[in-house]
Amino acid sequence: MNRRLSAVLPLLLCACAPMPSSVPADRGPWQNWQEFVLPGKRSTVYETRSDGGRVVMHAQADASASMLRRKLRIDPAQIGRVQFSWRVASLIEQADLSDADVSDSPVRLVFAFDGDHGQLSARNRMLFELAQVLTGEPPPYATLMYVWDNRAAAESVIRGPRTDRVRKIVLESGPGQCGRWLHYERDLRADFRKAFGEEPGQLIGVALMTDADNTAAKSAGQYGEVRVLGRDGRPL
User: Fold this and answer.
1) What is the C-alpha to C-alpha distance for residues 66 and 207, in angstroms, rounded to an integer?
2) Dist CA 205 CA 140 (whole Å)
3) Residue 116, class by beta-carbon neighbours within 10 Å (0-12 exposed, 13-18 middle, 19+ buried)?
4) Which CATH architecture has domain 3-230?
5) From the CB of residue 136, how many other CB atoms can be counted at a distance below 10 Å?
6) pLDDT of 96-139, one tens digit each?
7) 160-172: pLDDT as tens digits
8) Around Cβ 93, how many Cβ atoms within 10 Å?
């Protein structure tokens, strides 16, 4: 991969030019989600399926990386909790989310936040500028992911190996829960503070991402509905 693209790829996760969505507009909770490609990458296949009477999103990666995204505009004071679920059949044996060269995962939930770009380090400003040139969109100020890692301890925070504006909270570690639907309710504001040590800015996007490009492997994951709740507990 081009060295410049490799360096800024983490920043492209929620700032990529849209491609036509493969998700029909009438498919339950996924109607407002659109597929996005990453420059220079093959696309993961996202498709809705029925599972136990509900519509879930199935993602199939084959040495590929792309995401399914929903844009948001939620003021910091309104950010509350998030409810979601996922299931994987197996992990990617070679993957390690702390190593940029093999940073793949069968499931991740990605949140993009706005903020004061004037507070970025010189290195991050350079990476952000390059990412905007590649995509036509400025990257989010901060990107928080919920992930399933092969080895890192649950509830640990993994800093992006190329930029500290991407941080990952490990929800599951190892293969012990593979094959099961796992359900979560997280305090998004508290998790942001835990990961970044600061208050969140405006929440501007949420995305699913199943990828296997760095390991040149195959991987699959399924996602249940993602519900972002306000401080009053109501869906946003």
Assistant:
1) 10
2) 9
3) exposed
4) Sandwich (2.60)
5) 10
6) 999 999 999 999 999 999 999 999 999 999 989 988 888 777 88
7) 888 999 999 999 9
8) 10
